[in-house]
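re the bet — no i am not wrong, look at it urself. input seq straight from the record:
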Amino acid sequence: MRTVSEAIAFTPQRIIIIGGGPGGYEAALVAANLGADVTIIEEQGLGGSAVITDVVPSKTLIASADTMNRFSEAPALGIRTRAGDELVELEVHIDKVNRRLLNLAQQQSKDIRRSLEKAGVKVIDGTGRMLDDHTVEVRDKQGLTYELDTHAVLLSVGAHPRELDTAKPDGERIFNWKQLYQLKEVPEHLIVVGSGVTGAEFASAYRGLGAEVTLISSRDRVLPSEDEDAAKVLEDVFDRRGLNVMPRSRAASVEREGDGVIVTLSDGRKVSGSHCLLAVGSIPNTKDLGLENAGVTTNDSGHIVVDGVSRTTAPNVYAAGDCTGVMPLASVAAMQGRIAIAHLLGDSVSPLKKHRVASNVFTSPEIATVGVSQADIESGKYQADTVMLSLSTNARAKMMAVEDGFVKVFARKGSGTVIGGVVVGPRASELIFSISLAVNTKMSADDFADTFSVYPSLTGSISEAARRLHKMPV
């Protein structure tokens, strides 16, 4: 294994990164730190879709909705909003919410640009296309077209919302998830087509902001790829908050009708609303990249084929992020990019291990998972003991008036090693880190249980679950 100084000695003169999302800009920072001559090409702004139109704005919107949810449930804590002698309700100014989230996204993009330029990375505002495995054609925003030679290329071009031929977004009444931030008022009745992560998050958020929401799911439950117990909790919360879920219902078409929309289902039923959000998946941005010129292979869905260290089928071309179809998470894209550069420059590197990836669904309550799933255990793929504790028994949760959620921890039979877990509740995205650390370090449930947690705290339920996984020595 080469040292960092040895890796720098072997550094190619130039690395070109096409796409400035998490996979691209994280890779650029690592490469510049190791002494490479790095150029990054990005069209819409540094941070890519994750920062400009997806993760940052959507989670900022969700933060506003979360505040509304907390206030709506504040009476349980003995708190009410009063103006004089009159009780008043909170009001959402969605145009202000949207202006804030878009400004925040632009600020984050500018911060990333400054970090890259400070590290010595050259930034080109434009697009890149591969002419061969060592040449990239650039078209910049000034209208100039020119070629750049390189020793290696990293592709991090992301993906865009999938559309239906019978349901075309117009940015006024029918939206994809990039267009929702144009709204000037909270929809009277938002119909969300698609019950995966994106659909569930926006449905949860807009219900929190006061919209009537109907969620159309082609499957028998929301979040079909997530933990079944977690999905059940979320469905119960949706029901209690008045969010209508239509399971086993597939949208055939969406049409404008006056000041509203009509969604026609495949069985002929119709649903009317004021607006519709299409959350039916994404398509990789791999068209017209010149991949065939460089010998880069894609699969049937158009995703770039990569191995565990982000190599494509061309020896000096790597890829990271949603364009690879590995896992549609900004954290995974960033890790793929870092791994790609480490492998390319001869630094120490470990292949991406998908079973160690922590992920979160930013609904209310949040759903966080890491490692082996309940489905993996039930299928017999893994042999594990499971402990699941409801947050309703947790002292801190009671103080916070939290009634929904649980902690679930999986430990391998025999060794007792922690191999996975699920957290459902407020800030599950933060709480999952301790379980993720246990999974990644192959910690035993006993060692996990012996790690102090604060009392009272939500993490106390994680410690309790670990204690209940203890087995007496035979």
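see?? The mean pLDDT is 94. told u. also Residues 58 and 202 are 8 Å apart (CA to CA). so pay up
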